[in-house]
């Protein structure tokens, strides 16, 4: 008899290890990788029924695959979602979640502080298809109210934001968005489902770059879309995924499935280390300011603790006195921390947003978002926090 692996009563740590598991007839302990593009049918009659939709079964791995299903079900259990859809990357998840439901004449309202590629999709690509895009300061709720005083179709936000870690009140914005007729899409990559569950706060759709914390070891790309909205899934996302093909590979799905098993313990340690590093940076003479939701100096500190399970995330942003020259000198002097635009890894990674992830923004746009030449973003890893602090201290001495 197979065990129930879909119980919603399980606590998160159990869901992360056992949720969604489908054992093959070989009864393996570790989930199998189904590296197949297609499937065979015992008869032509069953093939006909499958393509009609009268029989639920696997047809083609672009549509569904057993390994993908396990990853989707496990993540959906953790998120508290009825539906989970895996994609080839985080950006394919973002684009699919938006483009599948928007059409010419529709309107999207988004927070200004977004990852560069998300900003590109909303500001540059969607308007090419006749979709109106409006941006607001994510922490200005009067601006949200004004933007949503007229009908909208989608609201998109990233919280905490990349790279300056602004925290948006998901429940408050969701209430305004729903009154305007909009679905709310939240990019939850910085918080992870361990710290923040947007669906429980009123959001309709959650998107992830699973490449980040969910994998957590810099091995593979992947994305995910989670929702309880049956209409969105059946009328919009499923046809989009089926016919445009941003499918996750079974091998990558298996890697991400293994990553989920340790997500809770990793995120806990990430946050503990990040809190120590942020406290060190806040008091350093060469730091103009440290930005971390767990610090009392953060503008949305109380909201962050209430909304993110009492934690401050694994990301720390800080502004180095001396601008780009001092920032580059610091990054180049680091001995443990690697320079990389990725985040959520077991290894600590640091980047200079103004010249990398947000390089395409104008100087005016960077200034409006708080992205100065001295700003760096640090993804705090699983190394010993004291080693990281010593490495940052000696590197800052070179600035």
Short description:
The protein is built from 15 helices and 12 strands. With about 400 residues, it is an alpha/beta fold. Helix 1 (about 10-20) packs antiparallel against helix 3 and helix 13 packs across helix 15.
Features:
399 residues, alpha/beta, Aspartate Aminotransferase, domain 2, Aspartate Aminotransferase, domain 1, seven-stranded mixed β-sheet, five-stranded mixed β-sheet, 12 strands, globular
Describe, in plain words, how this protein is organized in 3D.
Helix 1 (12-18) runs antiparallel to helix 3, helix 3 (66-79) packs parallel to helix 10 (250-261) and helix 13 (323-333) crosses helix 15 (385-396). This protein folds into 2 domains: 12-261, 3-Layer(aba) Sandwich (Aspartate Aminotransferase, domain 2), CATH 3.40.640.10; 264-396, Aspartate Aminotransferase, domain 1. The model has no long low-confidence stretch (mean pLDDT 95). The protein has helices spanning 12-18, 44-52, 66-79, 90-99, 116-125, 141-147, 170-179, 192-195, 230-244, 250-261, 263-282, 301-307, 323-333, 363-369, 385-396, and strands at 83-87, 107-111, 132-136, 154-158, 183-187, 205-209, 223-227, 287-291, 315-320, 338-339, 349-351, 375-379. It is an alpha/beta fold and 399 residues long. Strand 2, helix 5 and strand 3 (132-136) form a beta-alpha-beta unit. The chain is 39% helix and 14% strand. The chain has a 7-stranded mixed sheet with strand order 1-7-6-5-4-2-3, sandwiched between helices. It has a 5-stranded mixed sheet with strand order 8-9-12-11-10. It is globular. It is built from 15 helices and 12 strands.
């Amino acid at each position: 008899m197979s065990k129930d692996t879909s119980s919603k009563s399980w606590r998160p740590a159990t869901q992360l290890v056992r949720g969604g598991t489908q054992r093959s007839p070989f009864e393996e302990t570790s989930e199998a990788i189904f590296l197949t593009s297609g499937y065979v049918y015992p008869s032509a009659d069953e093939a006909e029924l499958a393509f009609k939709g009268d029989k639920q079964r696997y047809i083609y791995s672009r549509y569904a695959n057993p390994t993908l299903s396990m990853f989707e079900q496990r993540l959906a259990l953790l998120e508290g979602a009825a539906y989970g859809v895996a994609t080839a990357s985080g950006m394919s998840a973002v684009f699919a979640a938006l483009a599948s439901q928007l059409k010419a004449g529709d309107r999207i309202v988004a927070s200004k502080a977004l990852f560069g590629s998300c900003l590109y999709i909303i500001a540059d690509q969607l308007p090419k298809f006749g979709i109106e895009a409006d941006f607001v300061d994510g922490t200005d709720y009067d601006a949200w109210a004004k933007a949503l005083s007229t009908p909208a179709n989608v609201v998109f936000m990233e919280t905490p934001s990349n790279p300056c870690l602004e925290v948006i009140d998901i429940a408050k914005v969701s209430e305004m968005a729903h009154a305007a007729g909009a679905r709310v899409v939240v990019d939850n990559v910085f918080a992870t489902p361990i710290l923040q569950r947007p669906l429980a706060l009123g959001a309709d759709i959650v998107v992830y770059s699973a490449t980040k914390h969910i994998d957590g070891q810099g091995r593979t790309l992947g994305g995910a879309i989670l929702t309880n909205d049956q209409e969105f899934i059946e009328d919009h996302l499923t046809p989009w995924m089926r016919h445009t093909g941003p499918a996750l590979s079974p091998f990558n799905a298996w890697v991400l499935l293994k990553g989920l098993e340790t997500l809770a313990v990793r995120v806990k340690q990430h946050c503990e280390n990040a809190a120590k590093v942020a406290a060190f940076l806040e008091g350093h003479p060469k730091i103009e300011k440290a930005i971390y939701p767990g610090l009392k100096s953060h503008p949305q500190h109380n909201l962050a603790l209430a909304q993110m399970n009492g934690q401050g995330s694994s990301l720390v942003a800080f502004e180095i006195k001396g601008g780009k020259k001092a920032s580059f000198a610091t990054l180049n002097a680091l001995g443990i921390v690697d320079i990389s635009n990725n985040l959520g890894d077991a290894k600590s990674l640091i980047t200079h947003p103004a010249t990398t992830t947000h390089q395409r923004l104008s100087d005016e746009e960077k200034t409006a978002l708080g992205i100065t030449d001295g700003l760096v973003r640090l993804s705090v890893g699983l190394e010993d926090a004291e080693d990281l602090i010593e490495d940052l201290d000696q590197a800052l001495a070179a600035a």
